[in-house]
Design a protein that fits this description.
Layout lengths: L6 E6 L9 H8 L5 H9 L3 E3 L2 E2 L11 E6 L16 E4 L3 E6 L16 H8 L24 E7 L2 H12 L4 E9 L6 E5 L2 E3 L7 E3 L8 E10 L2 E8 L6 H9 L11 H11 L8 E9 L6 E5 L4 H17 L1
Parallel strand pairs: 7-14
Antiparallel strand pairs: 1-4, 2-3, 2-4, 5-6, 6-7, 8-13, 8-14, 9-12, 10-11, 12-13, 14-15
Helix pairs in contact: 1-2
């Protein structure tokens, strides 16, 4: 069998992208590619600047010509598993699906089976983009374990590259529904607060004044309840745990979030009598440009049953007390 032609990505380094180490700075342009993958590409000679090999510590300058030759995908470590998928759209280039809450996107410590990647390997018979590495075939962006909703999957490398660029350039529109603890004061607003890893709890993120990565979240109130507020959220950036951290910062952590709002969630349960076993966050809508057809695409994921049931209970409580 003849080898497939290599896939290339060529970038003229813009002034708008940061300097610093190349392996770190390139994450701003290709956010779905891990820093470790970038470092491996450099070490194996697949990444060149102005035609010459460089070290991971090279500091890119405006006008530099960066070329990446993507190696053929390595065999996926994850094993195919017949797990049901809710497909919202599919063609030969990509899939848009409605991820269920409680399923991890890709294998990790403690989640090496029954992940979305396991399901996709079975469904697509292994025909997925390899840019995300052996543990993340096809994965362009992620949702938290407990978050449900819209997720895009790339079937080939070119599609992955173009989608990743749209995420990096912030042209992908992402809207979420979040049920937060308390009565949000403003009907609409925008949260601008940089996010960094928590100084003592390394698996958590936190607002970092004067440092961290830029993070911007817009919101508008959809419905108010006793002890909770339903908000529609727009993500302008895509930092880890961004919605959860930003609403904790405002004083309204997500209902069901045991990491960023355990005490407030306990008060919600005591006040309403409603037990919730996951964070109430749903990726409602996503819009992007199809990499092959250049058509504008927009998809919405139906609300999950558990969120719908909680909202129905809250409405009953509100009506009974009014």
């Amino acid at each position: 069998m003849a080898e497939s032609e290599p896939t290339f990505t060529r970038i003229e380094w813009p002034k708008s992208l940061p300097g610093g180490r190349l392996d770190q700075a390139l994450r701003e342009h290709l956010p779905s590619v891990s820093r470790g993958t970038v470092r491996r590409l450099i070490q194996e000679g697949h990444l060149r600047v102005n035609g010459a090999p460089v070290k991971p510590t090279y500091s890119p300058r405006a006008g530099d010509q960066v070329e990446i030759s993507w190696p053929a995908p390595r065999p996926a470590v994850a094993q195919p598993q017949a797990i049901p998928l809710e497909i919202l759209f599919e063609d030969e280039h990509l899939i848009v699906l409605n991820k269920s809450a409680g399923i991890a996107v890709h294998p990790s410590a403690g989640h090496d089976e029954h992940t979305l990647v396991n399901a996709l390997l079975h469904y697509c018979e292994g025909k997925l983009s390899g840019i995300g590495g052996v543990a993340r075939p096809g994965i362009v962006h992620r949702l938290d374990l407990e978050t449900s909703g819209c997720l895009i999957v790339a079937k080939d490398d070119l599609t992955h590259i173009h989608l990743a660029r749209q995420f990096a350039e912030r042209t992908v529109r992402k809207y979420y529904l979040a049920l937060v603890c308390g009565d949000v004061v403003k009907d609409a607003g925008e949260i601008r607060a940089a996010i960094a890893r928590h100084v003592s709890h390394r698996k958590r993120m936190a607002v970092a004044i004067g440092e961290g990565r830029e993070a911007r979240t817009g919101y508008e109130v959809v419905e108010r309840f006793r002890s909770a507020t339903l908000v529609r959220v727009q993500l302008f950036t895509g930092r880890t745990h961004q919605i959860r951290v930003h609403f904790q910062h405002l004083g309204y952590p997500l209902v069901g979030d045991e990491v960023y709002g355990k005490r407030q969630h306990q008060r919600f349960t005591e006040a309403t009598g409603i037990e919730v076993n996951r964070q109430m966050l749903h990726a409602l809508e996503i819009s992007f440009t199809h990499p092959a057809t250049q058509r504008s695409m927009k998809f919405s994921a139906p609300w999950p049953a558990d969120l719908g049931n909680v909202l129905a209970r809250l409405r009953e409580n509100r009506n009974r007390l009014s």
